[in-house]
Structures are given as C-alpha cells and as structure tokens.
Amino acid sequence: MNEVIKCMLERRSIRKYRPEQITEDELDAILLAGIHAPSAGNRQSVIIAVCQNEKVNFELGRINRSLFKGKMSTEKSYISKEQPSIADEASIPSAFYGAPTVLTLFAPRNFLYSVADCCVMAQNIMLAAHSVGVGSCFVARAEDAFLSELGRELQKQWGVDESYEARVHITLGYPDGTYPNGKPRKENRIKRIS
C-alpha cells in the first residue's frame, strides 16, 4: 500500500502522552509539513504558535476543558476506550491531555476561509506527526480559550496580531500506553454521481 495512504488509515488521536519532549528534528519536519498545506487563494496566512511550556499548556488546556459542557459519551457511544476524551472522562483536567507540545493555529479573523485553512494545515501536521512516530490530537474551542484573560495575554506575548483569531489546537507527544484501534467506518457515506 502507498505509504501516504497507509499513514492516513493508521493515524489515531492520542490523548495519553509520555512526559518527554519530542525532538527538534521531529518538530521541524511536522511544522514543515504544516506550512506546505494548501490554503485558499494560496494566501498562506495561518500562523502556528508552538508552546512547549508545561505550565502554560496545562493552564490553557484547563481553560479549554472548562469550556466543554456536558458529557457526550454513553456506554454504547464513546470517543475512545483506550485513549479517553474529555467527553468520555469528566476527571481529565486538561483538554491537552498532558501533551508536551501544543500548537495553536491562528488565522485572519475576518477571512471567510480561515477555519478551512487551519483544518487543512492541521491534517498535514497530524499526518506528518504520525509518520515520524509522534502522536497528535485535534482540539477545538481555540477561539473561546483565547477569549480568556490568559488567552489574550498569550496572543500578545506570542506576537500574534489581534486581527488574527485562534482556530484550533493540536497536541503533540509520544503516545503512552496501547495505541488505539480504529472504529469501523460507517457505511453509505460515499455517493457516486455519474
């Protein structure tokens, strides 16, 4: 099987991380893949903020966690048994799951395709991470987390212009524990038109 497609089929969201930091070479390869993602009109306007500060990551992840209301999982419907999500387990304190590296993708606030640009970049980043043995997880609610006092202060400290808005977080680190199995794919999701 083609290695790129194999990577796409095997990658899973990781929510349990070992504490050691990923290497600079791994991070550089992941970021390079990110900045080579397609973007609307080839604007290349998404900014990647890389945070490897344990305290900052925990606090921002705690804020993000507090924004999640309710519990989505049930006995029959859950995110992951091997790698529980905050939707599965109320006791998880941070939506960043202890990841040693957290990326925040920022894009122009008033650009129609900024969310799409960030999502395409996030996919490149997560596939590149998997290809070098680094786990990742796509974490939503970045906009709301950066409306907090800490979020606004971090955006300023990180030199990201206020005309930009945080759109998504991606956690990165070495997986801890059993690598999660994929769920069966739901049927009838492809419609061929001739």
Looking at how many chains there are and whether they match, the oligomeric state comes to single chain
User: How confident overall, as mean pLDDT?
Assistant: 92
N- to C-terminal distance: 28 Å
Question: The CATH topology is what?
Answer: NADH Oxidase
Order of helices and strands: HHEHEHEHHE
Shape: globular
Determine the fraction of residues in helical runs and give it as a percent range: 25-40%
For the sheet with most strands, the description reads:
4 strands, antiparallel
Radius of gyration using CA atoms only:
17 Å
Q: Using the coordinates above, name the CATH class.
A: Alpha Beta
Q: What portion of the residues fall into strands of 2 or more residues?
A: 5-15%
SS element count, helices: 6
Biggest sheet strand line-up: 1-2-4-3
The CATH architecture term is 3-Layer(aba) Sandwich
The count of DSSP E runs of length 2 or more, i.e. the number of strands, is: 4
Structural class: alpha+beta
Runs in which pLDDT lies below 50 for 5 or more consecutive residues are none
Give a short overview.
The chain has 194 residues and is of the alpha+beta class. It has helices spanning 3-10, 24-35, 54-67, 114-131, 142-145, 149-157, and strands at residues 47-51, 101-108, 135-139, 164-173.
Topology:
Blueprint lengths: L2 H8 L13 H12 L11 E5 L2 H14 L33 E8 L5 H18 L3 E5 L2 H4 L3 H9 L6 E10 L21
Helix pairs in contact: 2-4
Report on this model:
The protein is globular. The chain has 6 helices and 4 strands, in the order H-H-E-H-E-H-E-H-H-E. The protein has 194 residues and is an alpha+beta fold. Helix 2 (24-35) packs antiparallel against helix 4 (114-131). The protein has a single domain, classed as NADH Oxidase. It has a 4-stranded antiparallel beta sheet. The chain starts with a helix and ends in a 21-residue tail after the last strand. This is Nitroreductase family protein. One of its GO terms (molecular function) is oxidoreductase activity. Belongs to the nitroreductase family. Its cofactor is FMN. Keywords: Flavoprotein, FMN, Oxidoreductase.
